[in-house]
Amino acid sequence: MSEAMVVAQQRGGELNETTLECIGAAREIAGAGGRVTVLAVGHRTEGVVARLSECDCDSIVYVDNPVLQDYTYDAYREVLKRVIERVKPEIILAPYTSLGMDLYPGLSVEMDIPLISDCISMKREDGKVIARRQLYGGKIEADYSVDGRCILTVRPGTQRKCGSGRPSKAAETVDLAGLHARTSVVGYETPPKEDVEIDKARIVISVGRGIEKKENLPLFEDLVRHIDGAVLAGSRPVIDSGWLPKGRQVGVSGKTVKPKLYIALGISGAIQHLSGMSGSEFIVAVNRDRDAPIFKVANVGIVDDIFKFVPALINQLGK
Ligand SMILES: Cc1cc2nc3c(=O)[nH]c(=O)nc-3n(C[C@H](O)[C@H](O)[C@H](O)COP(=O)(O)OP(=O)(O)OC[C@H]3O[C@@H](n4cnc5c(N)ncnc54)[C@H](O)[C@@H]3O)c2cc1C
Question: Electron transfer flavoprotein alpha/beta-subunit N-terminal domain: from which residue to which, for each copy (predicted)?
Answer without folding.
Answer: 4-189
